[in-house]
Task: structure prediction
Amino acid sequence: MSILQVENLNKAFGGLKVTNDVSLSLSVGERLALIGPNGAGKTTLVNQVAGFLHSDQGTISLNGQDITRWPAHRRVQNGLVRTFQISKLAPGLPAVEQVAMAIHQREGSLKNMWRNRWNYKPVVDEAMSLLEELRLTHLAMATPESMAYGDQRQLEIALALALRPKVLLLDEPMAGVPQGEAQLILNALTLLPKDLAVIIIEHDMDLVFRFADRIVVLANGAVLAEGTPDEIRKNEVVRAVYLGKAELA
Ligand SMILES: Nc1ncnc2c1ncn2[C@@H]1O[C@H](COP(=O)(O)OP(=O)(O)O)[C@@H](O)[C@H]1O
Ligand SMILES: [Mg+2]
Result:
């Protein structure tokens, strides 16, 4: 069953066509990787899907509903959640409090957070059990600036999950993560709920080929190729345009 459907999406900045008639669909629980050279339009496409950018043309449907004109927050409320290429963590605030804030955001109870302690305890409990599910309990009281990059990125994934997404958009979860911590991110990704559909933008081909059920290759704003990791690995056009042969050997 399709959870997300993008049809003939277009976006231009001035004269520059950045999203060129892109169509793609995502099934419940599917892991889709969006790859392509820098400037291919990956982040722009994710911004359009998440509602941070208006599309010039095309439609976006979530669970059969046309969401093309919905603002970003309404998409989030309906289960379409993204993380950012650049970190949005709140400095100085312990991890568990950040997750609690995300839960309050989901429940629409953020302004009650400090007033209503009766409400607050179940939220903290939920935040703790979410951290536990992701094996991040040891980070509960840590602030982002005291964390390794890899841990920060995992916390960002926890914040997104606190919103109970049906579709998660991950824009370069490995960005800035040193090689030695890459395994942490891969572990976090393998712990994601099985029924969650994921679109991941990532340059780390090792992660992409391990994680993805399907890969879409973007070039100059258009879909250059689409297929299983095996099909993409063998695709001569993709190899020529983007993937170094050595990487795929
Ligand atoms: N707000 C913007 N205004 C003008 N040009 C933009 C804007 N955002 C992105 N671009 C351009 O669109 C192209 C695609 O960018 P982006 O979506 O960030 O690519 P990617 O994420 O694949 O590296 C690039 O040429 C970039 O310079
Ligand atoms: Mg990008």
